C-alpha cells in the first residue's frame, strides 16, 4: 500500500468542496477507502484545517466532518522532536517545514501531496500536486 502525506490544502479542498480542486481530493480519499493508499497528515494540519474551515462550516458540523476524516487518514503528532528538526531545517516556511519533517518521520513515505508545490520544492521527499497523484492511479 502506498503511503501518502496529505497537506492541509487537500483536506480543506475536500471538506469545503473547493472547485475544481475537490475532485482530486475526493479521488485521493476514495483510494484510501479502497485501501490502495494509506494517507497521513500532521496534527498541525488538522488544527489548521479546522481554523480555516470554521469560516465556512458550522462548528458542530465541522467537528463531525473532521472526526469522519480520521477514518481515512493517520495523524502524525507534532512533538518536540519534529518541532526541533523543523526549527533547524533549511526550509524558509516553518509551517511547511513541520509538514515535511512529519512526512519524513514515517518509514517508506512515498510523497507529499499538496497544491502548494513551490513551498515544498526543497523537501527531502517527492512532492506531487493532487492531479499528478491521481494520474498515477490509472
What does the model show?
The chain has a 5-stranded parallel sheet with strand order 3-2-1-4-5. The mean pLDDT is 94. Helix 1 packs parallel to helix 3 (43-53) and helix 5 crosses helix 6 (94-104). It has helices spanning 8-16, 22-33, 43-53, 59-69, 80-88, 94-104, 130-135; strands at residues 2-6, 37-42, 73-76, 111-113, 126-128. It has a single domain, classed as 3-Layer(aba) Sandwich (Rossmann fold). It has 138 residues and is of the alpha/beta class.
SSE inventory with pairings:
Layout: E1 2-6, H1 8-16, H2 22-33, E2 37-42, H3 43-53, H4 59-69, E3 73-76, H5 80-88, H6 94-104, E4 111-113, E5 126-128, H7 130-135
Parallel strand pairs: 1-2, 1-4, 2-3, 4-5
Helix pairs in contact: 1-2, 1-3, 5-6
Concise summary:
The chain has 138 residues and is α/β, with parallel strands linked by helices. The protein has helices at 8-16, 22-33, 43-53, 59-69, 80-88, 94-104, 130-135; strands spanning 2-6, 37-42, 73-76, 111-113, 126-128.
Q: Could you name the CATH class?
A: Alpha Beta
Strand content: 15-25%
- Judged by helices, strands and strand pairing, the structural class is alpha/beta
Counting DSSP E segments of at least 2 residues, the number of strands comes to 5
What is the CATH architecture descriptor?
A: 3-Layer(aba) Sandwich
Q: Spatial order of the strands in the main sheet?
A: 3-2-1-4-5
The sequence of SSEs as H and E is: EHHEHHEHHEEH
What ranges have pLDDT less than 50 throughout 5 or more consecutive residues?
none
Determine the fraction of residues in helical runs and give it as a percent range.
Answer: 40-55%
Major sheet attributes: 5 strands, parallel
When the domains are counted, the total is 1
| CATH homologous superfamily grouping | 5'-nuclease
- Gyration radius, rounded: 14 Å
Mean pLDDT: 94
